[in-house]
Amino acid sequence: MFNMIFINALIKNIRNNPSCYYVYTNILLMKYLFLFTSFFQLIHLALADPRLINGGFENDFNDKNGWIRASNVPPIRSDKEAHSGKYSLHSKLKNEFALPSEGHLIQTVNKGIIGGEKYDLTFWIKEVDFGVSYVQQYMINWISDTGQVGNIGLTNFKGGKKWTKVSVPKLTAPKDATGIRLMFRFVTGAVKGGSGEIFIDDIAINRSNYTKEYNELLKANPNIAKAIKEGKISKEKVLSGIRSREEEKEAN
Ligand SMILES: [Ca+2]
Question: What is the whole-number distance in angstroms between the Cα of residue 123 and the centre of ligand 1?
Fold first, then answer.
């Protein structure tokens, strides 16, 4: 904010001197650029999004970095395929006998969900084998401090032999939700030769839109509201700024 005071003082001085008109307009431009920079800093502070840890599987699993793997054939981290970076998650199931094989991938994010807001679940998959009796599913539990407050039951998804993006858009968080538990399930039935193999990468949960933050930002910053009204910054640019900031945070 010190910079803003400095620029305002500078404008006041130069405005009184007609020979400095060119400098004056440039400083006005500077003022708007600065306003825009402050705006991004504000967004950074204002937004809290649910943050899946290690959604791109670039870090090895440990008890602090998010993912839990479970069941009798849990998926593994692999460098054989990757949508981003060098690693993805690999589930390979092959029944030797007439017994089912199953693997789970689970992550719980306790904070960051805003009740009533909409969220998109997205991930990338590459299917190697979609064999006999094979099923792959995701499941979502909305949670609060007191336990589960809603859920989206086991739901099948399908991709292809090439990396394919799966989008589950506009999932509305129940009013009391503060967190989310995401689970992937890979399973074959009790048949001999049942099989399925998949790579999965870049799992993310993001807000579907940022209208709430946009309105709050404008309310708290009349200067930005004015700049939008006067056409100096477009609404689309502000919204896409919020979104790209969030995606950048997701990538980190
Ligand atoms: Ca990756």
Answer: 11
Six token digits for residue 81: 């395929």
Q: How far is the centre of ligand 1, averaged over its atoms, from the C-alpha of 250 (Å)? A: 13
Domain ranges of the chain: 2-47+210-251, 68-207
List, in sequence order, every beta strand (DSSP E) within 110-194. Answer: 118-130, 135-144, 147-156, 164-172, 179-187
Counting every residue written for the chain, the total comes to: 252
**pLDDT by residue (tens digit) across 94-115?**
999 999 999 999 999 999 899 9
Ligand 1 mean position, distance from CA 31 (Å): 40
Residue 57 CA to ligand 1 centre (angstroms):
5
Task: Identify the band that residue 27 occupies on the pLDDT scale cut at 50, 70 and 90.
Answer: low
What is the distance between the alpha carbons of residues 94 and 133, in angstroms, rounded to a whole number? 11
Fold of 68-207: Jelly Rolls (2.60.120)
Ligand 1 center from residue 195 Cα (angstroms)? 24
DSSP assignment of 200-228 equals EEEEEEEES--HHHHHHHHHH-HHHHHHH
Which pTM value belongs to this model?
0.75
CA 66 to centroid of ligand 1, rounded, Å: 15
- What are the tens digits of pLDDT across the range 163-189? 999 999 999 999 999 999 999 999 999
- CA–centroid distance, residue 8 to ligand 1 (Å): 46
Q: How far is the CA of 201 from the centre of ligand 1 (A)?
A: 5
Average pLDDT, stretch 144-164? 97
- Alpha-carbon gap, residue 186 to 75, rounded angstroms: 9
